[in-house]
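note to self: the first set is below, dont mix up w the second
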Amino acid sequence: MANTARAAAAVGARPTHEREDAAFEHLCGVLTEFDGTPAHVLSHPDRDGVPGGCDALIRRGALRVAAEHTCVHSISERPKLPHFWNRIAPPLRVKIEARFPSDWLRVWIPLFELPRPKRIPAMVEAVAAAVICAVPDMPLDSELKVDVPAFGFYVLVGRLKPHSSRGFCAVSWRVPGNTDDYAVEDMARAIRDKRKTLLAHRDEVDQTILLLESDECGFPSAFMSAFMEAAKTESLEGIDEVYFACTLTAPTIAFPFKWGDVLMPEPENPDRQRFHAAEDRFNAPHFEEERRAEEAYARELEARVETRKARGGLAPSEEA
């Protein structure tokens, strides 16, 4: 029975581990470019059953680093919320992106007005239909309240200016009150919980790193402010560096939140500029791959048009 329980727990934790691994892989890649020396994960003590083990031990050049990873949200953690939300966001995102493959969209759903679990599939269908109906009439860089009458609430839809031909739809929750307060509360939770583990490793390593992550925002300004506010009440003792990984779109973009005694290095900070330049170099293969995919797609479309022309199947208006 115990073995079965452990196996079930391992299966359940796998998506969390995959997300954590991806975040550490990105950070190590950027640090490698930034430092000019290799950075890579040596082990995962917590997964290996080490009591009080950190999420990752990293070799950063000559330094041995204890690192912790956690996701932060614009609303404090609630029991079963991630599992519940995963029944809503992914299928809704798929439906909307299938209809608008080139648009950059955001949909905010009222978290505290959701129906009972058994009605979630019907709600996803209703929200998708309402959004798909509303988007074509929305100008770029606009937001619109879209009613979902069958469930007695509205969703907030944003249509952004696209930054590439590949679109996306981000699905987030909407809550009453000042959402900044929720972010601050969860940021404080993240610092408080992870500080304990990093402090326990402080004498065993050369450096400690806290890696925060969120897929809720395209620009991290809300979480930057939340971190600064949370740092007023939560001690950062024992945490040498803090980074924030924004994973809303591909590729991931990381921001330094703390270097030594410096909180939120200014954009003009030479080291911060070097850090972002290092990240650009690390992300360059992704952008090159995306460029090649777009060129290949353009060539495929051109070939199809030429084929239809040769067969006489293209209307004059289409040729123009």
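second set (the one i keep forgetting abt)
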Amino acid sequence: MNMPANRLNVVIFEDNAHLRDSLCILMSTSANFKVTSAYADTRNLLKNIEQNVPDLIIMDIEMPGMNGIEATRIIKQNYPQVRIMILTVFDDDAKIFHSLCAGGSGYLLKSSTPDQILQGLKDVYHSGASLSPAVAERMVRFFQNNISFEKPDYSLTIKEKELLHHMVDGKSYKMISDAMKISLETVKFHIKNIYRKLHVNSSSEAIVKAIKQNIV
């Protein structure tokens, strides 16, 4: 999938004024994204989303009032088509897990470079997910240490399991296409089938379910 002809609308929720301004400047230098609004907290959350109708949201976790995880959950319940990138200083397993379960499509640390942030947003737009290998690894360890695994049969094919494994590793559609030597359209076809079989609607849901139930 190519980036759209028009720049994607991005809304930012970040209480640090310096970082918020830096993200706005970063988006202004990109041919793919533009910031329509930036907020220091999540007050008037749904009203702000309705006014801006973003394609993507950059969401901090620790903010005054409602935190970013709960805000993500509320946004996804009301605007399921909006994709949310969590950008935070927190790299602990529980916050990663709860952010993704709330509906976050990606999870990056604030120590990420500008190029990594822009690439993460592109990955979220293209594939509905952006997890760095390090974050994916932490999530695997979280489940291994805290969950009693069960392994139901979802009738996934060998190819579908291989592809799901790549998703768990944090690969984008393009990276999966290259690794499996198949076209992007074939990747999308398999992922559509994976969603149907796992009874999920997004990459983050598929990844959480795959790890939690030891599917791959």
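remember for set 2: Strands lie at 8-13, 33-39, 56-59, 83-88, 106-109, 130-131.
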